[in-house]
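Student: Please help interpret what follows.
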Amino acid sequence: MKKYKLAVWEEISGYIEVSAESDEDAREQAEDLMNAYGVEKIFYPDWKAMGSIVCEELKKYNSKHTHGNREVLDCEELPT
């Protein structure tokens, strides 16, 4: 069996709700959440695939996944 190295890309977007003092504070909270958990975990806090832990804390953000796109960008056979 041959081995391959693939370049893959995924885009995911949607909405969350936060309580904040200002627009800047709200944006900072969103950045912090994305850095800590990743967008996919924020949108799907109940998802338990591959040993993922349900994150009850994330449910309070009322997330809504609205867009997703993925693509294989490149495929290269690796030498054996």
User: Anything to note?
Assistant: The chain has one domain: 4-77. Helices lie at 23-37, 39-43.
